[in-house]
Amino acid sequence: MTTRPVTTRPESTRPESTLAERKRRLVSGELTETALQLFVQQGFDAVTVDEIAAAAGMSKRTFFRYFASKEDVVVQFLADLGAGMRAELAARPPEESTATALQHAVRSCVDACAGHADKALRVVRLILGTPSLHARFLERQAQWRDDLAAELAIRLALPSPTALHPRLAAGLALTVFEVVLQLWSDGDGAEDPSALTARAFAAVAPALDAVGR
Amino acid sequence: MTTRPVTTRPESTRPESTLAERKRRLVSGELTETALQLFVQQGFDAVTVDEIAAAAGMSKRTFFRYFASKEDVVVQFLADLGAGMRAELAARPPEESTATALQHAVRSCVDACAGHADKALRVVRLILGTPSLHARFLERQAQWRDDLAAELAIRLALPSPTALHPRLAAGLALTVFEVVLQLWSDGDGAEDPSALTARAFAAVAPALDAVGR
DNA sequence: GCGAACTTGACACTTGGTGACACTAGGGGC
DNA sequence: GCCCCTAGTGTCACCAAGTGTCAAGTTCGC
User: Fold this and answer.
1) Closest alpha carbon within chain B to A201
2) Protein B18 CA to nucleic acid D1 C1', in Å?
């Protein structure tokens, strides 16, 4: 899309990447922040993209150069966690049980949320409370699930990447994730998400281990 | 907000209900059929609502009196299964284990799909292959999940309907459902969906029974 | 300073979706 | 027979989400 610097990872480099990149992130951040504020104030559906853009001091067209859809401004924030989740799973030692590895993967996400609890809580509640946002979020999750399943298939050295078991296990893990988010936002962040995750995984673990067999 | 296009209760009454109702179903069926045909031919995004309406011999406005959105024409077909799923769960004898009851509930859906395999397979593949459709479908599923969780909470005589366990169990059941649909459509309907469901539940059952405790 | 590459805004256009209003068909009640 | 009521429909106008295009402006490399 942009320049092709040949090397792989433009993100992972130092904060002082290109000036252009920093600018891009700045604008993007400004956009998300104003959008989020407006959404929380007036509700997702009551805010138009024009309003967001105007409030951020730019044109509608520019908004859509940064986000593929109105929903994306909100969902993106959580969506990035998905990539981290797969990476975390891949990084777990291979001798670890499926259940434990998945638990760590999910927990890394949950902890990331709990890290900026103030912002994350707003976002999560907005998503869970707005059908169209929830839909987009679930769509992303479906991609994560495929990713996780593929990673699990590798981990377990299964012949087919589309087998029943890895998909099931990935699905279970994401179900845990979703339920934990639900309870966390229902309880106004009072419940400790890490503890919730642990409890949920305790219940689900037997099924996950069955997958490993 | 004026008319209530979607949620009439056509199924529960006699087949020979009102003439008006039968007419409604006729038009609705005509609309879905032509829409489905066009979608399969040209892809969901390449077909406009105007085209569908024209092909079915009516106006765009009328289309939206029958379906809340373009996606609904496709999703509705599967969405009705959700209601049946909760009903099926509610009808299971209370002494039955959570796992068995849920398995029967899911199976009733799966069997309903396998029943009209020709149509269902088209629909399922369309949904799983089109992101926006998949998103809407998952949104519906999220509602089912809440319903199932509520039903489970009643079944298990839990104090809070928002507890961790019933939500988890409902999520697991729907994960099974989704994965079975995936494998079924991947395999061109060759795999027996009932058998798939049974296998999946066998793996998941330990977790579900942990819920019952 | 100059040109290339990238970013932005303005404008027009398509499409999903809704509201308002007028028209028709059928079903009683008289 | 007639009148009125209701549900369904078409037409038109309208809003908002996206997208393509082009003409600027900005930054970077040289």
Assistant:
1) B207
2) 28
**Can you give the distance from the CA of residue B159 to the C1' of nucleotide D28 in angstroms?**
66
Which residue among A168, A176, A186 places its CB closest to the CB of B200?
A168
Partner-chain residue, chosen from A131, A172, A208, that has the shortest CB–CB distance to B139: A131
The answer to whether the C-beta of B139 is closer than 7 A to strand C is no
DSSP A2-38: ----SSS-TTTS-S-S-HHHHHHHHHHHHHHHHHHHH
Whether residues A59 and A86 share a domain: the answer is no
Q: How far apart (Å, rounded) are the C-alpha atoms in residues A169 and A106?
A: 12
Whether A27 sits with its Cβ under 7 A from any strand C atom: the answer reads yes
Query: Both A13 and A115 in a single domain?
Result: no
Kindly state whether residue B114 falls inside one of the protein's structural domains: yes
Domain boundary among A70, A96, A111: A70
Q: C-alpha angle B34/B37/B42, rounded to 5°?
A: 120
Give the residue from A22, A51, A70 where a domain finishes.
A70
| pLDDT tens-place values along chain B, 213 residues long | 333 444 333 333 344 456 667 888 889 999 999 999 999 999 999 999 999 999 999 999 999 999 999 999 999 988 888 888 999 999 999 999 999 999 999 999 999 988 888 889 999 999 999 999 999 999 999 999 999 999 999 998 888 777 899 999 999 999 999 999 999 998 877 888 999 999 999 999 888 876 544
Taking contacts as CB-CB distances below 8 angstroms, the residues of chain B near A131 are 139
Whether residues B64 and B76 fall in one domain: no
Residue A37 domain boundaries? 1-70
Are B54 and B96 contained in the same domain? no
**Interatomic CA distance for residues A40 and A179, integer angstroms:** 22
Give the Cα separation of B182 and A83 in Å (integer).
22
Q: Which of A182, A186, A197 to mutate to test the interface with B (most CBs of B within 10 A)?
A: A182
